[in-house]
Design brief:
Elements (H helix, E strand, L loop, with lengths): L1 H26 L33 H35 L3 H39 L3 H18 L4
């Protein structure tokens, strides 16, 4: 019976390792070598194309919000799928009375969940910071009208003939 538990444990660890390796391989981005593209290497220059802000790409605020919502939904669904896989493996381990394996899988689930929540909080914090930066650069309608009135007043003072 102990041999079966050991084999089950080894299989579970192997499956989790394969899943983690496959997931990591999918997430890896390949950055082309600038020399292969015929672009001369400039020290300190980014090795990837510079992405223009969404506003510069002609997207409205509503379109950007919709893109953000879709991206968040995609992240949530991927996270749920990963946790569901681990829960299924944990259930098998519990059915086989592999207590230590089930505990290890639960720790992995908790770790993945904590990492996801932390990444989510960081993304939301960055989104809020970008929004604040945009709001600081873009004057409100009241501020624009006040600036216009001030400019009109200063023109009248500079040229009393008007």
């Amino acid at each position: 019976m102990e041999a079966k538990k050991f084999i089950g444990l080894v299989l579970m660890i192997g499956m989790v390792s394969i899943l983690a390796a496959a997931w990591g391989a999918e997430k890896k981005a390949v950055v082309p070598d600038p020399n292969e593209l015929g672009i001369p290497a400039v020290p300190g220059a980014p090795r990837h194309p510079v992405r223009q802000p969404a506003a510069a790409e002609g997207r409205t605020s509503a379109e950007r919000q919709q893109m953000y919502q879709k991206a968040m939904e995609q992240r949530f669904s991927e996270h749920k799928a990963q946790l569901a896989e681990l829960e299924a493996i944990k259930k098998i381990a519990e059915e086989e009375n592999a207590v230590r394996t089930a505990e290890a899988i639960q720790k992995l689930i908790d770790k993945k969940d904590a990492q996801f929540k932390q990444a989510l909080e960081q993304a939301e914090r960055q989104r809020r910071e970008r929004l604040e930066q945009i709001q600081q650069r873009t004057p409100t309608p009241k501020a624009r009208s006040a600036e216009k009135e001030q400019a009109d007043t200063s023109e009248k003072k500079a040229d009393p003939a008007k």
